[in-house]
Amino acid sequence: MITFYTPTLRRGISMRPLSRQQRLLKIIDLVYEIDNGEQMLSALFSELRGLLRFSSGVLLPIDPRSFEMLGVHCFDCPAENTAPYFEHYAAFDPYVRREPGALIVKQTVRLSDLVKLRDVDHCEFADFMRLVPYRHALAAVVGFDGQPLAAFSVHRRREARDFGDDDMAVLDQIAPHLGRALGIRRWRADPAMGSTAGLLVFGASGELLFMNAVAERLLPSTVATAVLDALPPAGSGALRLGFQRYRVSRLPWRAASLLTRLALLDSGPCRGDGKDGAGACAGDWAAVRHLGSTLIIVSLVPFQRRDDIRSRLAHFGLSPRELEITAQKVLGGLSNAQLAQRSCISEETVKSHLHAAYRKIGVAGRMELLFSLFGLDGDGRG
């Protein structure tokens, strides 16, 4: 059991235990303050045990460009179970089988709220739960700027009680901060990360099933079929939308994809029977793999490389901050308000950086800058 104290011990003076609110604030502070990701997550899980009981915990990073879970940070659970989960058991995980729209919401959900636990006993996923081992789970998908970045969960063994409302409230308060902290780390390393790749999912007959937030910004759903039409039988295709050209590529479905639920919709014997229909399908691996392969998962990525655009902008003598803001404006097509939120500055500061950059480059605005950078016809005014 971990005990938490204030750092005020002086010559025999006893230290006072931290209150529940102080512990929560300490966790929120550390997710922002500890730069090393592994150290931050270890500290997060350790401190979290001062607020709720759990036997093990995991954080699974999510690629916002493909909705695939990548890697794992495991806390007090066998590391050798990581590969089997990604390669097989993830496709049967009731959390993975939720509809993708629900996965972006920073809301904590109990395993028992998704499916009746007695039904899990008859699913292949029960084999994995015995390996970890756990019976009860509490999880949230955390993200930033509308993009999922990680699945965060804690577990309890069979002999323990299920998680309660107070436990859910703790994760509800931590999840938004964890998502923002992970987002800041990612975009500090790569400002274009998650902002330039659209993701679209089509069914076997070509119907649009899902668009991520980036795809929704790039194009209306009414022209989504143009993306499918530009997809060749093999390799990558090209699509022009207004002034921008995109590379259109097919992404493979994998067991650890959060898009699995789309393949299971109206799929007969694999239809869930849980409380909300998500269920824990008892179908075998071959059937689930076949259903996943029926999805047409398409990425939409600008042809211009980020490094090339940034190097072109750098020739105009922009300051580091002006270069960062202008590159995000060009590549992501974000509004000033979205840029302000992502960069943790005010909208007025964003406008000031952009005006200074446009003045140095000699253009009147974003459209004129795009025409200049990409060598397109027209002056970009109006």
What is the structure about, briefly put?
With 382 residues, the protein is α+β, with helices and mostly antiparallel strands. It has 17 helices and 11 strands. Residues 1-14, 269-280 and 377-382 have low confidence and may be disordered.
List its salient traits.
5-stranded antiparallel beta sheet, Arc Repressor Mutant, subunit A, 17 helices, alpha+beta, 6-stranded antiparallel beta sheet, single chain, 382 residues, disordered C terminus
Strands, total number: 11
Category from helices, strands and their pairing: alpha+beta
Instruction: From the alpha carbons, calculate the radius of gyration and give it in angstroms.
Output: 23 Å
Fraction of residues in H or I helices: 40-55%
Whole-number mean pLDDT: 81
List the quaternary state of the chains.
single chain
N/C terminus separation: 65 Å
As residue ranges, the low-confidence spans are 1-14, 269-280, 377-382
Spatial shape: flat
Number of helix segments?
A: 17
Give the DSSP E fraction (strand runs of 2 or more residues): 15-25%
Major sheet: size, sense and barrel closure?
6 strands, antiparallel
What's the helix-strand series? HHEEEHHEHHHEEHEEHHEEHHEHHHHH
